[in-house]
Amino acid sequence: VLAAGRRLLHAGALAEAESVIALARAGEQEADVRSRLDALAAEILFQRGQPEPAEALAQQVVESAQGRARLEARQTLAKLKLARGDFSAAMAGYLRYLADAEEQGDALHVALAWGGRGVAQIRAGDRPAAREALERAQGFAQELGEAKPLALAAQNLAVLSHLAHDWASAADASSLALAAPAPLGHPASPAR
Questions:
Q1: How many CB atoms lie within 10 A of CB 133?
Q2: Quick one: which of 56, 63, 58 has its CA closest to 40?
Q3: Rounded (10°) angle between helices 147-163 and 127-144
Q4: Where are the alpha helices (DSSP H) in 65-166?
Q5: pLDDT digits (tens, 9 = 90+) for 111-132
Q6: What share of the chain is helix, strand, coil (3-state, %, to 5)?
Q7: How far apart are CA 109 and CA 100, in angstroms?
Q8: Structure confidence by residue, pLDDT tens digits, 7-39
Q9: Fewer Cβ close by (within 10 Å): the C or N end of the chain?
Q10: Mean pLDDT across the chain, nearest whole number?
């Protein structure tokens, strides 16, 4: 159920993802599975433009869960702060997310946290720090062979190169961002 909900979310089928996860959450679940479902539900709420319930649910998961569920909820909380334009709170959220991911030894979430931190730094206007964070995210993602953090880091490195009028680097990074999701079996989605 988690995998199906996540695939629907990544495909942009938010209503369908929400329905699948809601059905699963209505049933009896082990605590870890319940926490993973709640973390995914919080992300879906965020993506559907419902920040208050998303934040409440994600915070509940952070306070009560361990493992990947807590990491996913931390990521959603940091993205909520960034979406609100509260860059210092977003940076603090991404730093907590990164520290937790490193402590748990979850390399995928380390890469995603570095990428999110880079995006927050772009939005805050700190381009050198953003480039450093995004290059770290890209490096981790390439080592892991993980398409999502690789595509996100490359896409945002393309933005930085574009802002610097470095057209060749922007084109290279854009090409990498568009090619990375191919192994996932679906076309790149610049909106994600």
A1: 25
A2: 58
A3: 150
A4: 67-83, 87-104, 107-124, 127-144, 147-163
A5: 999 999 999 999 999 999 999 9
A6: 80, 0, 20
A7: 9
A8: 888 888 888 988 888 888 888 778 889 999 999
A9: C
A10: 91
Long-range contacts of the stretch 31-37 (C-beta < 8 A, 24+)? 32/65, 32/66, 32/67, 32/69, 33/2, 35/61, 35/64, 35/65, 35/66, 35/67, 35/69, 35/70, 36/2, 36/68, 36/69, 36/72, 37/1, 37/2, 37/5
Q: pTM surpassing 0.85?
A: yes
In degrees and rounded to multiples of 5, residue 50 shows phi and psi of: -120, 75
Q: Are 98 and 114 in contact (CB under 8 A)?
A: yes
Q: For residue 62, how many other CB atoms are within 10 A of its CB?
A: 22
Asked if 153 contacts 141 with a C-beta cutoff of 8 angstroms, the reply is yes
